[in-house]
Amino acid sequence: MRRFDNPTSMIPCSECHIGQMHQAKVTYFTWLGEDLVTVPDFPAWVCDICGRLEYDLEALNNLALLLCPVESKPARPKTTQPSSQQDQPPLTSQPSQTK
Questions:
Q1: Would you state the torsion angle of the CA atoms of residues 8, 12, 13, 14, taken in this order, to the nearest 10 degrees?
Q2: 51 falls within a domain
Q3: Is pTM beyond 0.90 here?
Q4: Which of 1, 23, 29, 66 is the most buried (most CB within 10 A)?
Q5: Number of structural domains, the chain?
């Protein structure tokens, strides 16, 4: 049986409800478009009874930022051109609904 150094990092398995999830390093595989991306030594949680594997959420979020960074474009001010009253749709007010 595999020994784990840090028993306080265990959580109950959500699959079998018998085993304990232990921190482990696994190889993560994902597709990015048509390219297969592999990440060795990826943090995960593995059940010692049924073998269920759950990737570490924080590590997944960090990997997503690396693979698909949010485009930070400088905000451009909106330019509005004066238009006549005929081009604008009439304003209607919606009655507020209270529950």
A1: -130
A2: yes
A3: no
A4: 23
A5: 1
Q: What one-letter code names the amino acid at 19?
A: G
Q: Report the distance separating Cα 12 and Cα 1, nearest Å.
A: 18
**Strand pairing class (11-12; 20-32):** antiparallel
Structure token digits, residue 56: 């570490």
Rounded to a whole number of angstroms, the CA Rg of the chain reads: 26
Domain range for 31 is 12-68
Q: What gap in Å lies between CA 19 and CA 43, rounded to an integer? A: 19
The answer to whether residue 24 is domain-embedded is yes
Which residue bears the tokens 């390219």?
Answer: 35
pLDDT tens string 73-97? 555 555 555 555 555 555 555 555 5
